[in-house]
């Protein structure tokens, strides 16, 4: 049985991806131990550090303390258990993988590299030297890994030809599938949740809602989250009584909250990054049994197939038309909810981690 050590400052509660991989590896016959001291930063805060590396000094003592703890724990673990067959460094592990490379000499290191620091910073308005430095950070992280795991073919193509890599879809945790099974009767309510970054395209959502109001169609929208475009979205939606804003929902509650809605919205931006990803929320919302609408991009169409409703990126009218077609036709809505649940079965943790478990077995 291959022995894997999940290592780093990842926070499964805030970033479930590494938890999905750990669960999937276990279901595929790997023994997985964890040496983890979560760095209590949100995704937005981590991205801000990637955009402004000098802010690293602001939490440097905390990070160094966590690193000292996990490095010491790792050495103690290896004295008892020997070296693991592989080390898994979780999502947003640009810095953790450098430590892992130092601590686990001669051990294959798998880096789950869903975010390119340079690409993310550029997507949020950075340019010039800052982007060059962050691309250098990406390269250092990639060079420290034996295998780089990406979520889409488009991200894989951003690597250099000699980089060992594998595409593993993001997938969804088991609790999202369970929430879908437990959901009662659904109305035609619509939900979005996310960070309000340009990638998400939330202004497109409220503009689509305005178009629907002009047609006399007023389904209830719940928009969960906060971020860069939040004030803009609030301004656009001023006076609209069918939109409810919730700035935060606890991660443990989010699956059931989403599953109580009939329709869930993905991403709608036209940014380069928006054209490269299949977002967490799409996998999760399909698992929760919602009909899902998201942007018609190459990776989403290739991966999701008929599991979702596609609309042109950045087009509020196209989104309004898609919402209207679902809320106006109960049979169509039910069919797209069924399609989502069916497609979601391809992205359970055991399915998505199968090839990674095989790679670890072959390279131990």
From TrEMBL:
Keywords: Glycosyltransferase, Transferase. Pfam families: Glyco_trans_1_4. The keyword Glycosyltransferase applies. One of its GO terms (molecular function) is glycosyltransferase activity. PANTHER family: D-INOSITOL 3-PHOSPHATE GLYCOSYLTRANSFERASE, GLYCOSYLTRANSFERASE. This is Glycosyl transferase, group 1 family. It comes from Bifidobacterium ruminantium. The lineage of its organism: Bacteria, Bacillati, Actinomycetota, Actinomycetes, Bifidobacteriales.
